[in-house]
Design goal:
CATH superfamily: P-loop containing nucleotide triphosphate hydrolases
Helix content: 25-40%
Strand content: 25-35%
Low-confidence stretches: none
Radius of gyration: 18 Å
Shape: globular
Distance between the termini: 32 Å
Number of strands: 12
Largest sheet: 6 strands, mixed
CATH class: Alpha Beta
Mean pLDDT: 90
Number of domains: 1
Order of helices and strands: EEEHEEHEEHHEHEHEEEH
Strand order of the largest sheet: 6-9-10-3-11-12
Length: 244
Amino acid sequence: MAFLEVKDLKVAIDGKEIVKGISLNVDRGKVVALMGPNGSGKSTLAYALMGHPRYTITAGKIILNGEDITGMEADERAKKGLFLSFQYPQEIPGVSMSNFLRTAMNSMQEKPISVLDFQKLLKEKMQVLQVDKSFALRYLNEGFSGGEKKKAEILQLAVLQPKIAILDETDSGLDVDALKTVAQGVNVVRNKDMGVLIITHYQRILNYITPDEVHIVVNGKIVKSGSKELALEIEEKGYKDIVA
């Protein structure tokens, strides 16, 4: 049994069905890539897995570590080990990265971490990820470049250590150097206890983060699955030829 099981999930937005019956598994220590063209339902699936209230699950189940979390709120899912890295991270003026991360960490555990212990942890994670120490004092994503916003998300991933990380188009808008840096960060952070679901249009991030499985989504359904070679086929031939 995989740590995350998605069973025939259907999701609607404002009454319109977008995800039309997707099933997939993500186990701890594994990387699963979900690829597809624009509008295929990939990001909708990500938000539905995380419990965004706008996305209505009309059928199917989400099982996390053997427990049905389909009806749970987003904060409950986070406490149980789900993490979503947004395609377009929001700016939060007035809230420093350090305070945001400590608050998030304390909300997920019974015993709050002290300020000194947290600062030590944050410093260690920033050093490992080669993140500039100024990040800790800057307001969350305010004035950040696209690459800096993605680095901040990976820093959150490193500090919170979820069981399953959903990366929604983390490569979006990144140049080659920023993409390599972010991918390297993901590889440094992930381990045998963390499963990763990478959602992307392009194969390029998979040059740096090797998937164990690849699923192709078109029109709200998985139409083809395979190994990392399937992603290379998509890069060479495009979606139309592969799924025809």
